[in-house]
Every structure is written in structure tokens, then in C-alpha cells.
Amino acid sequence: MATVLVMVLALMTMQALMLFNVGTTTAVAAIQDKIDIAVYFKRAASEDSMLALKKTVERLPQVKNVEYVSSDEALADFKQRHLTDLTINQALAELNQNPLPGSLNIKANDPNDYALIAAYLDKNAPAGLIEKVTYSQHKNAIDRLNKFVDTLNRMGLAVTLFLAFAASLVAFNTIRLAIYSNRDEIGIMRLVGGSNMFIKGPYLVTGIMYGFFGALVAIILMAPIANIINPYLVRLVPEVQLETYFYAHIFPLFGYMMLFGAGLGIISSWIATRRYLRV
Amino acid sequence: MIQFINVSKIYENRAVGLEDISFTIKPGEFVSLVGRSGAGKSTLIKLLIGEEKPTKGRILFGAYEVNKLRSTEMSQLRRQVGIVFQDFRLLANKTAFENVAFALEVGGRPQSEIDEFVPQVLEMVGLPSKRNHFPNQLSGGEKQRVAIARAMIHHPAVVIADEPTGNLDDINSEEIIKLLLRINELGTTVLLATHNKEIVNKLKRRVISMVDGRIVRDEPNGKYIIM
User: Fold this and answer.
1) Enclosing domain of residue A16
2) Of A128, A159, A176, which residue is a domain's last?
3) Which of A11, B14, B152, B169 could form a disulfide with A218 if both were Cys (CB 3.0 to 4.6 A apart)?
4) Are B77 and B154 in contact (CB under 8 A)?
5) Which of A68, A102, A128 is the last residue of a domain?
6) Which of B178, B146, B137, B3 is nearest to B82 (CA)?
7) In a mutagenesis test of the A interface, which of B46, B106, B118, B146 is the best target, namely the one with the most A β-carbons within 10 Å?
């Protein structure tokens, strides 16, 4: 009983870590997807030169895609967004030219490459074309988020490992006691020629069963927990649907935990039988 | 059948278990191994069934070289040896029948074989009526007969009895020895370790005498003579 309990604790932590990873990966991806480099052209830049730069940038291997927003589109978009704002509408009406520049929105495959792309633009774009390149603020935010996720991951892994170790020790001790209380029977099995596997088998199976039941209890306990914390998570990052993910992946989750639990169990019982079952 | 070649066993605390033991037992022999407690009889048996490894020398058992067996082969060897101990070593929560059947179950034999052979062997040791008795409902002599039945269930080539009469009174001891003799007549080699002088002298079979881990006498039709 105690063995299954500790096993459940270890597996729950592992499961939480797995779900946390899915959550953060989705969240980071969602945020990264919103990030790009914006290249604002000078008002005087011709559309041809802007499109030529778009083509060059598109050919960079680090670049996922490039979106060209002409100054007219930018204006339309701007107007659309501030449809009800009278002040802005009046101000726009008073300007009889379009104040918004054309721009490129560049998305990289890897957020770490934005600096590289910015440097490339700095060096290779024709002089007098670019007004400014914005990317640096995003990068800091992403770096911080990544660091935070990394730290949490590492802590989760440490807790999982620690609990896994505790679970193995408890399983080991339980099996050791079982071997001790059956020592007469084991002695006679050896005497009458019971094979190695015949004698060890039941204890190894016991170890596997601890893992199996541990995984079963862990997954049953996780269902209501996912239910409870899901609304809070959705409020934080709308893209993270923990509950949906949990139910969609319940079998793989269970499978991983069972493998891990059974692995722990069988390793503990293997060591216990090796040490206490001299055949 | 069984051959010890210059076998020594020295324990970690440097106590000498056996010292340069050599002897051969032929198939069908009935050999008594005698000596005081601590003379090395039990050590010799432990080496023979592979429970301990010799420090030096070779131990041959049929086609097996016991001191070189791996644990998987060891269980095969042990199915060819029937072993009987002074303290019977029966499982208290199993009946006489189940105790004997256990030896077949451990070898992975089918139930049909168990139902056929176990009653036969219980019949042979004279306990067919006690098959459903638990060990605590049996007398010492009966327990030892169950143990012999269990040892015989695999039709072993050799039966090793380590002080089988140590816990029994004279009458029961005599019965057990008679049973071992009958087993021997059926062609099974018997190795009997004992310090019961009377039994050995009555047997008039080969006697190997041990003192302090060495063989001091090995005679056919021997007597129990230990200085």
C-alpha cells in the first residue's frame, strides 16, 4: 500500500511535469507566433525596393515567412482599428497624406535568430531605405519566458527524480520483506530445483504491478485536478487547453507512466532479488 | 557418478571446511559419510549440490562439473538430486500431498503428472493415508518420509540424506534407513551423512570417515570408527 502510494506521488509529479511541458510549449509557441521583426521603411522608399528587400529576406534560411504591409494597407488597418475614435479620425483627415510607412513583418523559425536577421538587414539593406527595425524588446521577453520555463522544468525533473528514487527504495524494501518472509519456501524451491526465473518471477511481477497500479491511481487522480486548474490556465494563456489535452492523450500519458512506474518497480525488485535471493 | 578431485574449501575467516578431498562414488552405491559434527560432512554436501563453491579442486556430478555451473544449469542439476535434511524442511502451510507436488510445480510440470506421480511416491514411502495431513499433524518419522517422497518425485539419480535420523527415535530411524535401502535397491545412488554409529555398523556398506575436513578412512563394508 505504502509502495503504491509513493509510486503514485512520483508518477503524479512526472505527469504534472509532462502536462506542464505541453502547456508551456504551447504557450511559448503561441507567444513566439505573435512575435516578429517589423521593418519600417522610410516614407520615400519605393514599393519596388521594398518588395526587392522582401525577396532577399525571404531567401534567408532562418526566415519562416515575410509579410509585406504597404503604407496604404497600414493606413486602412489603422483606420479600421480606430473606427470609433473621433480624434484620430479628425487628425487623419487633417493630414492630407498617409503618415504610415510601409513595413515588412518577418517571422523567424527560431526566436534566437531575430538578432541575426536584424544584423543582416542593417548590413545588407540599401542605404536610405529603412527607417527602423524593432525586435529587441520581444527578444528579452522571450528569453525571460524561456528561462522561467527552463527553471520550472528542471525543478520538476529534480522532484520527479527524487520521488522516483524514494518510490524505488520503498518498493525495494517491500520486496525485500516479502522475500524474507518467504525465505523457507524459497529455500525449498531452490532445493527441489526451481529455476531462477521461477523463483524470481513472482517478485518481478510484484514490482511491475506496483508501477501499474501507481500509474492507474495517478491518472485517475489527475482527471479532477486537470478539471479544476484548467479555467485558471485558460485565463492565463488562452491557447493552453490542459483538460482537452489530458483527455485526448490519456492513453499515451497512462502508457508513459506505466512504463516509468513498471521500470522503477522492476529495477527495485531485480536488485532486491539479486541481493536477497541467492539461487 | 560423483567425483571429488582434490577439493578444498576454506572459509573467509580462514576456517578450514574441507582439505584436499578426493573420492569417487559409482552409480548404485550406498555410501555412508560419517564423522563428528563439524568434521565437514555438511560442507561436502553443500559443495556437491552447488550451494557453496569450493576454494580449490573439481567436483563432477554425472556430466556436470558442479563448481563451474551457472545458476540456470544449477537448477537442472538439483532436479537430478533428491535431498533430505535432518529438519525435514517441509512447508507448514501445505499438506503432505502438496509438499511433494510442490517439487513438480517448481519444475513446471503439468497437473496430470502431479496427480499421477505424487500418490505413487507417497505409496512408496508408506504414507498414502496421510496425504491430506499438514506437517504439524505428522510424527517426525512421517515428516521425514514426506521429505523422502519429495526427494524421490523427480526420480533422481542420487539421493543425499544429511543426518536424516538426527531428530528421530531409534524405531523411526530404522524405518527411514530401510526406506533409503529400498530406494537404493531400485537403482538410486544414496549418500547418507550421519553420526549414528549403530546405523552405520548395521548397514555394512561403504563408509567414508571424516575428521577435521579430511577423509581419514574409506572402506567397503566399513564401520563407524572415529578416534
Assistant:
1) 2-30+141-276
2) A128
3) A11
4) no
5) A128
6) B146
7) B106
Give the minimum alpha-carbon distance from B49 to chain A in angstroms, rounded to a whole number: 9
Could you report the per-residue pLDDT of B196-210, keeping only the tens digit for each? 888 999 999 999 999
pLDDT at A200: 85
Residues A48 and A20 in one domain: no
Taking an 8 Å cut-off on Cβ atoms, the answer to whether A194 and B75 are in contact is yes
- Interface test mutation site (partner A, options B49, B73, B75, max chain A beta carbons within 10 A): B75
Grid cell at residue B130: 496421510
Q: How many domains does chain B have?
A: 1
Q: Is A41 exposed, middle or buried (0-12, 13-18, 19+ CB in 10 A)?
A: buried
A65 shares its domain with A169? no
Segment A194-223, tens digit of pLDDT: 877 888 888 888 888 888 888 888 888 888
Select the highest-mean-pLDDT range: A18-32, A51-65, A93-107, B150-164. Answer: B150-164
Residue ranges in B69-216 assigned as alpha helix (H): 71-78, 96-106, 111-124, 140-152, 170-185, 197-203
Per-residue pLDDT, A138: 61
Question: In this predicted structure, what is the pLDDT of residue A158?
Answer: 83
Residues in chain A: 279
First to last CA, chain B: 30
Average pLDDT estimate for A218-245: 80
| A69: β partners | A103
Query: CB–CB of A279 and B76 under 8 A?
Result: no
| Nearest residue on chain B to A201, alpha-carbon basis | B106
CATH code of residue B136? 3.40.50.300
Residue A54, Cβ density class (10 Å: 0-12 exposed, 13-18 middle, ≥19 buried): middle
Domain count, chain A: 2
CB contact under 8 A, A191 and B71: no
Predicted confidence at residue A59, as pLDDT, reads 84
Residue B225, pLDDT score: 79
A vs B: CB pairs below 8 A: 48
Yes or no, beta carbons of A191 and B83 under 8 Å apart: yes
Residues A149, A124, single domain; the answer is no
CB A221 within 8 A of CB A272: no
Q: Is residue A177 part of a domain?
A: yes
pLDDT at A223: 84
CA A159-A161-A164 angle, 5° bins: 105
Boundaries of domain holding B41: 2-219
pLDDT, averaged across chain A: 80
Q: Which residues of A touch B75 (CB under 8 A)?
A: 190, 193-196, 198, 279
The answer to whether residue A121 is domain-embedded is yes
